[in-house]
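dumping this here before i forget
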Amino acid sequence: MKKKVLAMLLGMTMVFAAVMTGCSTGDDAKGSTAGDGAGSTESGAPDNQGDSRIYKIGMSIDTTSQAWRAGLVEDVTTEAKKHDDVQLTVTDADGSSTKQISDVEDLITKGVDAILISPIESQPLTDVCKKAYDQGIHVIVLDRELEGDDWTCFIGANNKDIGKAAGEFIREYMTENSFTRLVEIQGTPGSSPCRDRTEPVDEALEGSEIEMVAQQPGNWIETDAIEVTENLLQAYPEGEIEVIYAQCDVMALGAMKALKSAGREEIKIISIDGQKEAYEAIKAGSMVGTFTYPFPGAEGVKTAIKLIDGEKVDKVIDMPSQLITEDNVDDVYDPDSVF
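structure:
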């Protein structure tokens, strides 16, 4: 009798242990999976369930107050929505390097797998991006460069190449039209696009009869460009400025408004970016031409997914640029474009 009782107790103990072991395994697995995305309030994919993978991607944009920058964010978010397993968090630094550093710190704390960043300035954002990179977070730099080499991938059109092409076109156009007086409205001083869209132009004009009358920062903002142009028109009477080179279409459109208000529309404008309103100005004869600068956002999301999956990508991914003039503007103009 005692042997039967002991056998029954042993059997019950083994069943109970098996049941408890099965419950424990299920809870651990579920808890581990949910932990990848649990409690997130960001847009995009829901929290992890079962064995599904959530790609946690953060984006740090310097500002959305400028049209091209807002378009870049839309390019990222539109692509992210195509992937049910992507959880995207977007931060806007509102033009402040200090806030952008804080935004990146916050994305690191959130435990993102990859950070897409377009830094307002190269040097100030380098250290915090290195911190993310050293922690194994893929740092994908869009449009504007960082200092050093502590980032995973850069995606964007080559501003140096565009600057060189712009300089060569400006020289050719001004020479053909016997123009010699040029003004440059630059972006934000210290930003890599400003540098790369300035130096090659200066080099391209060396040895020519073209004089750089003035170089003034417009900070990539239309209102700043309007003010800069108004001041330049007061300082330089009719005939002393013949061509304005604006480093982005937003500033070119601002300059155009100032020229129209002052009755100085004889001044020609050349720019960069490929904005819809710039195409319209080219079609109307108010602008000579612009060089396209394609959005790298969608490619950034795709690259982030590849990296998170363990794939290798090129350190630098160049996106092609194109000169748009009256000769080919109808081929690229889209009245329904968001930018």
